[in-house]
Amino acid sequence: MSEDARTEWGQPSTEYGGPGPDRLGAALGDLARRLRGEKSEQNTLDAIVHAAVDTIPGAGHAGVSEVRRRRRIRTTAATADVVRAVDEVQYNADEGPCLSALYEQVTVRVPDLAADPRWPRFTAGTAKLGIGSMLSFRLYTAEDDNLGVLNLYAERAGAFTDESEQVGLLFAAHAAVAMSDAQQVTQLTHALGVRDVIGQAKGILMERHRLTGDQAFASLVTSSQRTNMKLLEVALRLVESGELPTPR
């Protein structure tokens, strides 16, 4: 998307050929089609952050922060190194707009990062990183306690407006759906891979010891319990080495 189309959303554009709302709808339609075409979860995340910069007025950089199963937060996609640097300050300080959006379930706009009193440790840590304003959107809360935030960054103060927030909310809704779909595909692919490995291990035991499928599976479970290893690890060891692991 052109710079004019991104920063002057309310004006006619030769790119989308219509007024602001039409162009926004076209941009979000393009986004949905593009995200559906991505082949992996990471590709989907990378596409989201780059599209956010192209779509949301004022955004110079973008990143996605995620907490998987309520564990440590991390940046899973970013358009620039400065995004990861700012995020790391937030994580270490345990405060900042990203964390507020994540845990307080709000949209957080920071017009002037240097002058904002809400997160003193965070603003002190980012003073030399060249970011003047931020905008953060909560993305989703999944049943398995996964949390996500879309963070936008600009070098100058006052870069984000009411329009930025409105467009960003619509964009975040599309991004959340795309992320959820990509995660489900990843989980399904992993599950199929696990089933395949366990099936190979069962086949080895069935042929070697003349066992039924249930007996072979029970043998894997017993080995898992005796060695204090996960069932998948036991199956992988058998497939790769031809032997069941033994207790230490």
From TrEMBL:
<keyword id="KW-0804">Transcription</keyword>
<protein>
    <recommendedName>
        <fullName>ANTAR domain-containing protein</fullName>
    </recommendedName>
</protein>
<dbReference type="GO" id="GO:0003723">
    <property type="term" value="F:RNA binding"/>
</dbReference>
<feature type="domain" description="ANTAR">
    <location>
        <begin position="178"/>
        <end position="239"/>
    </location>
</feature>
<dbReference type="InterPro" id="IPR003018">
    <property type="entry name" value="GAF"/>
</dbReference>
<dbReference type="InterPro" id="IPR005561">
    <property type="entry name" value="ANTAR"/>
</dbReference>
<keyword id="KW-0418">Kinase</keyword>
<dbReference type="InterPro" id="IPR011006">
    <property type="entry name" value="CheY-like_superfamily"/>
</dbReference>
<dbReference type="Pfam" id="PF03861">
    <property type="entry name" value="ANTAR"/>
</dbReference>
<dbReference type="InterPro" id="IPR029016">
    <property type="entry name" value="GAF-like_dom_sf"/>
</dbReference>
<dbReference type="InterPro" id="IPR036388">
    <property type="entry name" value="WH-like_DNA-bd_sf"/>
</dbReference>
<feature type="region of interest" description="Disordered">
    <location>
        <begin position="1"/>
        <end position="25"/>
    </location>
</feature>
<keyword id="KW-0808">Transferase</keyword>
<dbReference type="Pfam" id="PF13185">
    <property type="entry name" value="GAF_2"/>
</dbReference>
<dbReference type="GO" id="GO:0016301">
    <property type="term" value="F:kinase activity"/>
</dbReference>
<keyword id="KW-0805">Transcription regulation</keyword>
<dbReference type="InterPro" id="IPR012074">
    <property type="entry name" value="GAF_ANTAR"/>
</dbReference>
